[in-house]
Design brief:
single chain; alpha/beta; 8-stranded mixed β-sheet; 7-stranded mixed β-sheet; 6 helices; 25 strands; globular; disordered C terminus
């Protein structure tokens, strides 16, 4: 390692997961060509890595905020490219960082063309900010984790639906608590003493979680927000349509109909499940499949009973659709919902559409995931998206989610009885 070459991470080597950093190199020869690398290991032991080639300026310096990569995992000026372009060392693995107590540790290094390391630095990307409280919840039927920001509050209260796939994910909830939200993330199965598999979903469970959140002494009493992604999107729609207390819903690349499992409330089925046709999946050379057109059409007469009656909801919706979503046609589902709301004389929604983005829109600066195992399909699937466009969409969306919830989790005190 060269004692003259310095690799700096600004403003600090420790930051929150969703914060950008500036990567700078000094002490190189004038116009020296080097390879920048990033490497990390996720919670499952999968190694993710990226690399990019840079040429130093006349002063022997490289600044990723200013300089363009000429080759490697990406090209062009991409200040955070080494992070979002990291790829797993085995096919079809999604970056797993679900435990909020463990930071995302990334090793950055500078290499000569022959491969010798000239300098390196470690970036600890924290999921929980200073003073955020993390409390496991095991109350009644609820199994999850509650994250509370520092201070007296009251704080806008959010229910983070990361319920499908089994187990519990804390990343998004912990980061939002670090941004001033009181967040409960809950499991639906495969966590603690919950069953490993389920055959139906009960809305009563989510009613219990809403009540829990509203009773918290630091929760803003004016209503709860619900954040979703993928299958959890139709759950969020149902929660807002059939239950009270919900003031704002963020729906990310979901469906307009109840999918995969029938929905029950008070021991009665209220929505059948829209299913998919395995004969309509498309195989690819990578071994992953494309499921975009495999779902049955929710607008077909025989499937309309599965549509979530969002016209009943009194809260606000933010619909987000990725135009290159290969999991299913989330843009078409979004367009249908907006048409239905307008037809019912409702204007309680706004929307965003991201060209070039794929299905898994998550907090920014994590490794882009082109494919991974799909629980319903039982096989790896392609999620879609072009990496650079997908990464940019995540940065924009993360700010928009926070703005939306801060804006709309205010208003009159909601009703306290069910709308069913």
């Amino acid at each position: 390692m060269s004692s003259q070459v310095r690799l700096r991470l600004l403003p600090s080597a420790r930051c929150l997961f969703d914060e950008p950093i500036q990567v700078k190199v000094a002490g190189l020869r004038s116009k020296q060509v080097v390879t920048m690398r990033a490497r990390s290991t996720d919670e499952k032991g999968v190694v993710f890595s990226s690399s990019a080639t840079y040429r130093a300026d006349n002063s022997g310096e490289i600044d990723l905020n200013r300089d363009a990569s000429s080759s490697g995992s990406y090209v062009g000026v991409e200040p955070m490219g080494l992070l979002w372009s990291m790829r797993p060392d085995v096919l079809h693995k999604r970056f797993q960082k679900n435990n909020s107590l463990n930071p995302h540790v990334v090793n950055f290094s500078v290499h000569e063309e022959e491969g010798q390391i000239l300098a390196e630095a470690t970036n600890e990307r924290l999921l929980m900010g200073d003073g955020v409280s993390r409390v496991p919840v095991k109350e009644g039927n609820i199994r999850g984790v509650l994250f509370t920001p520092p201070g007296e509050g009251p704080f806008p209260a959010l229910l983070d639906l990361y319920t499908f796939g089994g187990g519990l994910s804390e990343k998004r909830a912990a980061l939002l608590a670090s941004r001033g939200f009181l967040v409960l993330t809950v499991a639906l199965y495969g966590h603690d003493d919950m069953p490993r598999n389920i055959k139906e979903v009960h809305l009563d469970y989510f009613e219990e979680t809403l009540n829990f959140l509203q009773k918290h002494k630091k929760a803003d009493s004016k209503g709860v927000g619900v954040l979703s992604l993928s299958k959890r999107g139709d759950l969020a729609l149902s929660i807002a349509s059939y239950l009270t207390r919900v003031k704002a819903v963020v729906w990310i690349n979901g469906c307009s109909a109840n999918t995969a499992l029938p929905l029950h409330y008070k021991k009665i089925q209220i929505l059948p499940a829209l299913m998919f046709d395995p004969n309509k999946v498309i195989s690819t050379e990578s071994g992953a499949i494309i499921t975009k057109y495999a779902m049955h059409d929710p607008l077909a007469e025989e499937n309309k009973a599965s549509l979530v009656p969002i016209e009943r909801a009194s809260g606000r919706f933010l619909f987000i659709a990725s135009e290159d979503d290969l999991n299913w046609d989330s843009r078409a589902y979004m367009d249908d919902m907006m048409e239905r709301l307008i037809h019912h004389g409702k204007e309680n929604f706004e929307y965003l559409s991201y060209p070039g983005a794929g299905h898994y829109l998550e907090p920014p600066y994590g490794p882009y995931c082109p494919s991974s195992f799909h629980g319903v399909a039982g096989r790896p699937v392609l999620w879609g998206g072009e990496p650079r466009s997908h990464a940019a969409a995540e940065v924009h969306l993360w700010k928009k989610i926070q703005e939306f919830f801060r804006t709309h989790l205010q208003g009159d005190t909601p009703q306290t009885k069910s709308q069913l």
